């Protein structure tokens, strides 16, 4: 019985115990649940690293729409539950997440996000951390950009990127020349020498679409292991541009503006009217009274130049929450050139919207950008030499107020420069629009699919009018020219990214497809003349009265459609953050090339070794970063070709119209030979690099050595037999060109205290360029002569030569031997004899080249409390400039008909050869320029509405140290005729500006 009782009691006890435990557990859960649901008001303050309050910080409850911002004192107050997670975020700072739990107050410090920003590098179709990069890439962030009146984003990089040479005159309408690691082609059309631009992942987008204030960062991909993912368009490097977007949890509003005054930094020292009269009289000569000397004293440079005033305004906004990113900006730029009637006015509008769905698995986005540019210009090819050569002894006006002209005058600068500016109108209206749609899907963990579609429209309208008083259109009663062309580009990108980490292994895979179609020259151009008056300028061309068809020529600018199809793949692998490997392959097909060579492969491979991740480096605290890099790859150059490059083409001949059976008919004939084997130029690059950081990056930098060789160079003037070909010249792949060099970057923080910081960065690059070959047994040529500069008695002469064994831009000139006893210039002929006569073309000899041996930039930044001061010094050395402007002006015997520079006062009047272009006028092009100095002060008002307010003063081109005798030594080094100053240099400017940057 007792046993039975015990047996029967045990289940009962177990049941009661179980029930009791369950009840206690339920009560505990209830209490816990009640505690979790219990909340209240959470308060606190947010400060920066210096313990200063941060207004405008977004304080949001994660996963909800509840949020607030800190006030002027950095304080906040928000309703929360204990289980909530609070996100603190501010643009430019590292966001923080804090669990509420049972806290009643949370005070935090937000750190500046400089390290995170600097660690991210944009590569093709993705990003990478800086420590994982195996190619040669230079990244420039927005806070490092150059200040100044900048019309194109390329100017932001001047002096900042080793190996990148950006040159620009003072012309507001002229695009800068951009050359990376030396010239790799002998073609200039269609930007064949320029880097390839990618904007927010859109390949080939126009860089003019962006306002500099909208750019977050620029990454310059220099070697083929980094650029080959863009295949046939990446031989000149790739410039990746990333625009500004709001960070998660932020709402931002910024305003940036400046006003600037520009003045001519240097003028040519020409003789005044009285000085010229005295010089001519001293030589026993006479300036023709009345027509060449009316008693006036005119400074033509001063008359045509002015102080230019510029302004820029940029306002941008953006925000990002858990599901939506949005933003937009508007920029207005007005830049008046220092040459009268030259100016640029640009309005840029940009907007973006992105929405995420299904727990961020699907992202849809759209971005639209429009850039509208209006440019006014003058016939610079006549105005620029005219203001130097035109006689100062002549008034601009006749007594009746008309412009004074003497068309029978011979020599240089025969047209009234002021008349050239005011009687000739050039206006360009360019409207660019780009629309991009994005679909991004996270299929599996780490596997992401991206589809983007972009359409870009570039509508360019050109209008010019030479009125009835224009010396360029004498007795034509006005000449009008109108051109309207539409260029469209459609790009489809479809690719997969797979990023995963498995223990110590990290793998990133990329595979994709690209389709691009470019339709060019959809429009026409027309010239007509004979207007009853000038009232309508270039408008209403139907009112013209041409006397024949020859007075109404149409542009020979055929429409074409070009297609590019690509397949690409890339693998990135790292082990334990020590050993890095990357390989890529792109297969491009282009309709621009011959039927036998429309497809090509562009492979690349690179590796890196993070030495500081090794165990034997752990005890070496002095070195915090040491990485070796090596890579090899092949990229191509298909830029500048149209759809007909390799085809047999019929077109209009030199005399396109003729009378046939009483009808006006176009004459059609062969204009281009077919080449079914034509293919793109191919550039292979080997790159070896070392990255280092010492004392926790107090000293850091990189060293790169590269060898870049371009083969299958395309030249379109190979002479061929007229019996075998329909046209006597042929386009073929024959030559090769080589660049090799070294690039060094050194960054340092020499001083860093609580109150004062000094950061400095020095970069320099050496490049050696050499033409290896330009012919073969099928197309034999020994050299190509370039740079026909003209000048008195020098028509048909060439000043440069493209020849194997020499650099592109090599000068081929007569050798100056000084003066004979009569003060006459003498030269060395081909036989070695000194002659006091004009040499023959066969007497020219090699005389140096225009390629700089060293390009350098040195920037410094100083911070003291709220003050900041920075300056940039940059320059080049080891290059030559042909001062053909000085040569042409140095004409003593021409002084009764044209002005001369003060330089000519040292010449003998008997020297009838003083003006001949020779190596006498080949000058050292080295310079050191104080490019920019900026002083700023940042206010942090105690208000929740204004985050910061910065005022700054800036000066550009404050001084230049050089031996060059021309206007400025920063001569264009792009194209096949670099380093020539030939009466066409738009004066360089010195700029003073005041600006403001406000963040709300």
From TrEMBL:
Membrane-protein topology: Multi-pass membrane protein
Keywords noted in UniProt: Cell outer membrane, Membrane, Receptor, TonB box, Transmembrane, Transmembrane beta strand, Transport
SUPFAM superfamilies (UniProt xref): Carboxypeptidase regulatory domain-like, Porins
Protein name according to UniProt: TonB-dependent receptor
One Gene Ontology CC term in the entry: cell outer membrane
Organism superkingdom: Bacteria
Domain TonB-dependent receptor plug: 130-238
């Amino acid at each position: 019985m007792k046993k039975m009782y015990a047996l029967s009691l045990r289940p009962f006890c177990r049941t009661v115990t179980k029930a009791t435990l369950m009840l206690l557990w339920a009560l505990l859960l209830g209490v816990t649940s009640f505690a979790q649901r219990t909340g209240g008001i959470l308060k606190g303050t947010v400060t920066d690293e210096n313990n200063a309050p941060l207004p405008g910080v977004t304080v949001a409850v994660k996963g909800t729409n509840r949020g607030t911002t800190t006030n002027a004192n950095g304080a906040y107050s928000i309703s929360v539950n204990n289980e909530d997670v609070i996100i603190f975020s501010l643009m430019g700072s590292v966001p923080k997440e804090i669990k509420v739990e049972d806290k009643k107050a949370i005070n935090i410090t937000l750190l500046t996000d400089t390290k995170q920003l600097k660690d991210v590098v944009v590569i093709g179709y993705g990003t990478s951390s800086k420590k994982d990069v195996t190619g040669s890439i230079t990244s420039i962030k927005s806070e490092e950009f150059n200040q100044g009146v900048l019309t194109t984003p390329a100017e932001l990089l001047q002096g900042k990127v080793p190996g990148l040479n950006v040159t620009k005159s003072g012309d507001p309408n002229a695009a800068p020349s951009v050359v990376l690691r030396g010239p790799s082609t002998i073609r200039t059309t269609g930007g064949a020498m320029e880097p390839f631009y990618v904007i927010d992942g859109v390949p080939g987008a126009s860089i003019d679409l962006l306002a500099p204030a909208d750019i977050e960062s620029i990454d310059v991909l220099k070697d083929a292991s980094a650029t080959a993912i863009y295949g046939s368009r990446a031989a000149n490097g790739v410039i990746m541009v990333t625009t500004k977007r709001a960070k998660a949890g932020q709402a931002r509003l910024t305003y940036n503006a400046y006003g600037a005054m520009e003045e001519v930094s240097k003028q040519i020292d020409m003789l005044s009217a009285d000085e010229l009269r005295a010089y001519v009289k001293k030589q026993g000569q006479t300036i023709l009274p009345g027509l060449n000397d009316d008693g006036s004293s005119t400074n033509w440079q001063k008359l045509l130049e002015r102080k230019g005033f510029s302004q820029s305004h940029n306002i941008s906004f953006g925000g990002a929450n858990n599901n939506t990113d949005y933003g937009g900006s508007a920029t207005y730029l007005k830049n008046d050139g220092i040459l009268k009637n030259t100016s640029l006015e640009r309005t840029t509008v940009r907007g973006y919207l992105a929405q995420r769905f299904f727990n961020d698995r699907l992202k849809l986005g759209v971005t639209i950008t429009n850039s509208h540019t209006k440019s006014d210009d003058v016939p610079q090819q006549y105005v620029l030499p005219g203001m130097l050569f035109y006689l100062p002894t002549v008034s601009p006006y006749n007594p009746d107020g008309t412009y004074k002209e003497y068309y029978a005058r011979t020599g240089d600068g025969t047209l009234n420069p002021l008349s050239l500016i005011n009687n000739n109108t050039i206006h360009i209206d360019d409207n660019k629009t780009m629309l991009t749609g994005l679909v991004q899907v996270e299929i599996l963990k780490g596997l992401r699919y991206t589809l983007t579609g972009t359409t870009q429209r570039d509508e360019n309208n050109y209008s010019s009018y030479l009125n009835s008083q224009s010396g360029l259109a004498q007795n034509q009663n006005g000449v009008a020219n109108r051109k309207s062309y539409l260029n469209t580009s459609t790009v489809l990108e479809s690719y997969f990214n797979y990023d995963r980490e498995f223990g110590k292994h990290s793998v990133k895979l990329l595979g994709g497809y690209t389709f691009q179609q470019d339709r060019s020259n959809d429009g026409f151009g027309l010239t007509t003349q004979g207007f009853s008056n000038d009232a309508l300028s270039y408008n209403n061309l139907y009112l013209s009265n041409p006397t024949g068809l020859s007075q109404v020529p149409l542009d020979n600018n055929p429409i074409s459609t070009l297609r590019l199809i690509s397949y690409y793949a890339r693998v990135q692998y790292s082990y334990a953050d020590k050993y890095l490997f990357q390989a890529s392959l792109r297969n491009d097909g282009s309709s621009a090339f011959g039927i036998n060579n429309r497809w090509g492969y562009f492979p690349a491979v690179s590796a890196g070794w993070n030495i500081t991740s090794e165990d034997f480096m752990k005890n070496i605290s002095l070195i915090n970063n040491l990485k070796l890099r090596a890579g090899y790859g092949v990229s191509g150059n298909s830029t500048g070709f149209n759809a007909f490059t390799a085809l047999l083409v019929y077109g209009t001949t030199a005399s396109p119209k003729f009378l046939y059976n009483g009808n006006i008919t176009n004459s059609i004939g062969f204009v281009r030979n077919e080449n079914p084997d034509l293919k793109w130029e191919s550039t292979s690059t080997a790159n070896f690099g070392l990255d280092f950081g010492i004392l926790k990056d107090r000293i850091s930098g990189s060293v790169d050595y590269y060898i870049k060789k371009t083969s299958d160079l395309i030249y379109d003037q190979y002479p061929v037999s007229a019996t075998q070909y329909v046209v006597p010249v042929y386009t073929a792949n024959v030559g090769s060109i080589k660049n090799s060099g070294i690039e060094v970057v050194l960054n340092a923080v020499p001083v860093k205290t609580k109150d004062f910081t000094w950061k400095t960065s020095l970069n320099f690059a050496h490049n050696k360029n050499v033409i290896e070959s330009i012919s073969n047994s099928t197309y034999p040529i020994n050299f190509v002569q370039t740079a026909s500069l003209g000048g008195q008695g020098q028509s048909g002469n060439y000043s440069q030569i493209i020849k194997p064994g020499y650099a592109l831009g090599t000068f081929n000139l007569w050798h100056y031997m000084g003066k004979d006893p009569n003060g006459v210039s003498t030269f060395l002929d081909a036989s070695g004899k000194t002659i006091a006569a004009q040499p023959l073309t066969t007497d020219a000899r090699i005389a140096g080249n225009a390629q700089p041996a060293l390009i350098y930039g040195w920037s410094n930044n100083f911070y003291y409390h709220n003050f900041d001061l920075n300056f940039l010094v940059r320059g080049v050395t080891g290059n030559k400039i042909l001062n053909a402007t000085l040569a042409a002006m140095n004409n003593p015997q021409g002084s009764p008909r044209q002005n001369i520079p003060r330089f000519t006062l040292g010449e003998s009047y008997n020297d009838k050869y003083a003006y001949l272009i020779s190596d006498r006028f080949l000058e050292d092009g080295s310079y050191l320029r104080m490019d920019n100095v900026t002083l700023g002060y940042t206010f942090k008002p105690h208000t929740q509405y204004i985050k910061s307010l910065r005022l700054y003063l800036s000066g550009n081109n404050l001084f230049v140290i050089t031996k060059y005798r021309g206007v400025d030594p920063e001569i264009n080094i792009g194209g096949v005729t670099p380093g020539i100053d030939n009466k066409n240099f738009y004066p360089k400017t010195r700029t003073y500006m005041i600006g403001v940057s406000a963040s709300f």
